[in-house]
User: What shape does this take?
Amino acid sequence: MSLEKLRNELKECKYGRLLLQFLSFLYLLALKCRYFLYDNEFLKPASSGVPVICFGNISTGGTGKTSMAILTAIELKKSGHNPAVLIRGYKRTRSSASPVALCGPGPFSIRDTGDEAMMLYNLLNPHSIPVIVGPDRIKTGKLALNLFKSDVLLLDDGFQNFSIKKDLKIILINAGMPFENEKLLPMGNLREPKYRLKTADIIILTHVERTSQKNLDTLKQEIVKFNRNSRTAAEQRASGGTAALRPQVSEAMPTTSSSVGRYATRPTGVGGYADDQNAPILETVYSPECFIDAFTMKGMHPAEFKKEAAVISGIGDPGSFEENLKSLKISLRQAWRYPDHHFFTVEEMTAIETARHYLPLITTHKDFVRFPENWREIFKTEVYIFSAKIQFLLDGYRILMNAITEQIANNKK
Assistant: This one.
């Protein structure tokens, strides 16, 4: 039984809810003790010696941290830097104390790395960007510096890790379900109280296409309430800040199950710097790009795709994945949802192959790396990996990259 199912069952009865509330209270106490120790410098984060850029969130579920880390890593590499991505490697079976460096031809086992790390490796290795896997960010950071001479470290899902000093903290929030079940774990989905948004240097709202302008404005107001340094674009324009909020358009580039670009598709609601003290609130949307044939790895334009399909996923936000497909007028005749990071078994794949009745099967890149090694022997007909584009609205991309490169420049002074 998954933890999510166990939690839902406990919520069905009075004593189960009381137990979850008590555990959430203990969790809050532990968090507050941790904050106290670090805020008062009884414990101090270690410096890596190079800039550390952190991508994180305060809730469980898919917010797009990995996609943003990939975008940043590739852009920094193009700019002449030597970045490395550090990731915990959730659900890896190798000893958690053993860091793994993913770079070069491999081969590497997903059981040793975890699914997200393997996906990062597949997409960053063509750019010669190393991925270091392990829970100890100090160890993995030192490994990146010693083996690859990295000059900037990117933490994928590092907001809750206090052991390493961070130069820039970027929090991502899924605008489609911003603080779903607004209670702390395990009663709810919050990894930290919402007031911790005050520590963010940049806040990125993802999946803006899944919400209304009214709900988006309400979310921004809530963010500003917790992060007093944040400002929306309207407030910044009124104060004369961010005068250069002009559209930027570029080619999209590959990342996770998506591509990343910067486009001007919406005229309002984009954050930016009003002055050096303000944390920008940026916005992104997801839009379909192509379907990749899993057998040939060739792309197909969405317009060429059949209008009926089956889907399989084991990700934090399957709803966004399925909604993107529906936006293409694809009728989802069958949908299999599994827990996040689920390793698919031969038995599950065999059952799905029988049940789909020759419908094209669509999955995500993150899910595809968790297919059994012999998946080609199981599936007899079409299997596709869905690729979407993450699009920054208006000047969001420039604001993000300027903040990152500024930190790198400051570190060299």
Remarks:
- The radius of gyration is 21 Å.
- The longest helix spans residues 14-39.
- Confidence is low (pLDDT under 50) at residues 240-276.
